[in-house]
Specification:
The protein has ten helices and ten strands. Helix 3 packs parallel to helix 6. The protein has a single domain (about 1-85, about 155-235), classed as P-loop containing nucleotide triphosphate hydrolases (Rossmann fold, 3-Layer(aba) Sandwich), CATH 3.40.50. By secondary structure, the protein is α/β, with parallel strands linked by helices. It has helices at about 40-45, 70-75, 95-100, 105-120, 120-125, 135-150, 165-180, 195-200, 220-225, 225-235; strands at about 1-10, 15-25, 30-35, 55-60, 65, 80, 155-160, 185-190, 205-210, 210-220. A six-stranded mixed beta sheet has the order 6-7-8-3-9-10, with helices on both faces. A four-stranded antiparallel beta sheet has the order 2-1-4-5, covered by helices on one side.
Length: about 240
C-alpha cells in the first residue's frame, strides 16, 4: 500500500533521513522503532507532506505522493495522529472531530463516523461539548485518533500514541489500534518508543538509527533479536 524508496529529508542544512526505504503492505501493522532523533517522526511527516524530501520517492497505492500537498494526501486516504496529539484545545470535542472531516462533503456519512468514534471511545461522547483542552492526556489521545479516523483513512500513521499516558490507558488505546486494523481493515504505520507494545501487535518492523534503516524483520523475530531486546526491550 505504501512504499518509501531511498528517502532523504532535511531541515535546512541538517539531513534527517539518509536513504530510508520501507514498505507497508495493505491490511498490516508495521512498526517503526528507534531512539530519539532516529528519524521516525520525520518519516511520518514526509509521508504526510508536511516536509518534502530532498531525494527519493513515496508511493501510495501505486501513485507518487512525494510532491503533493498535505490536504491532497489526506484526501487520498492517509491520516496522521501526530506526536503530542495537537488537538485544538479551545474547541469542543465535537468541533475537533468535525475538523477531521474537513475534506469530506458527505454530511450523513460524517455523522455516522462520529458515532463510530464514540463507539470506540465512549468517554468522548460524554465530553462532546467540553473544550478539548480540559480533557485528560488519555482522552486527548483518543480524540486525536478519532479526529484522524474522521477522514476515513486507508492507512493511519500513529506517532507515539503511548507517550505520557498511564499503563491502563495505553492498553486500552493499543486494543483499539488492533481493532481498527483487524475489524475496520485500516493499515497502520506505528511509531512507538515502547517497542514491546509495538512489536506485540505489528506483523513487521523496521529499526531506524540516525536516519537510516539498520534492521528489519517480522515483529516476532524482532522481539527475539538480541540487539533489539538489549536496546529497546530492556532485557
Amino acid at each position: 500500500m505504501l512504499k518509501i524508496n531511498d528517502l532523504y529529508t532535511a531541515y535546512g542544512p541538517i539531513m534527517a533521513l539518509h536513504g530510508v526505504s520501507l514498505e507497508v503492505p495493505e491490511g498490516q501493522i508495521v512498526a517503526l522503532l528507534g531512539g530519539n532523533g532516529a528519524g521516525k517522526s520525520t518519516t511520518l511527516r514526509t509521508v504526510s507532506g508536511l516536509v518534502h524530501p530532498v531525494r527519493g520517492h513515496i508511493q501510495f497505492l501505486g501513485r507518487s505522493i512525494d510532491k503533493l500537498s498535505p490536504e491532497k494526501i489526506v484526501q487520498m486516504g492517509i491520516s496522521q495522529v501526530p506526536e503530542g496529539r495537537q488537538i485544538f484545545p479551545e474547541l469542543t470535542v465535537m468541533d475537533n472531530l468535525r475538523l477531521g472531516a474537513y475534506v469530506r462533503r458527505d454530511g450523513r456519512a460524517v455523522r455516522q463516523d462520529i458515532e463510530r468514534v464514540f463507539h470506540y471511545f465512549p468517554v468522548l461522547k460524554e465530553r462532546e461539548k467540553q473544550a478539548a483542552g480540559n480533557l485528560s492526556g488519555g482522552e486527548q489521545q483518543m480524540l486525536a485518533i478519532g479526529r484522524a479516523l474522521m477522514a476515513r483513512p486507508r492507512i493511519l500513521l500513529l506517532d507515539e500514541p503511548s507517550l505520557g499516558l498511564a499503563p491502563l490507558v495505553v492498553q486500552h488505546i493499543f486494543g483499539i489500534i488492533k481493532t481498527l486494523n483487524e475489524t475496520d481493515r485500516i493499515t497502520i504505520l506505528l511509531v512507538e518508543q515502547n517497542a514491546g507494545l509495538a512489536l506485540g501487535i505489528a506483523q513487521y518492523g523496521y529499526v531506524l538509527e540516525i536516519g537510516r534503516v539498520v534492521l528489519e524483520d517480522t515483529g516476532e523475530n524482532l522481539r527475539k533479536n538480541e540487539a533489539v531486546r538489549r536496546s529497546y526491550l530492556g532485557y
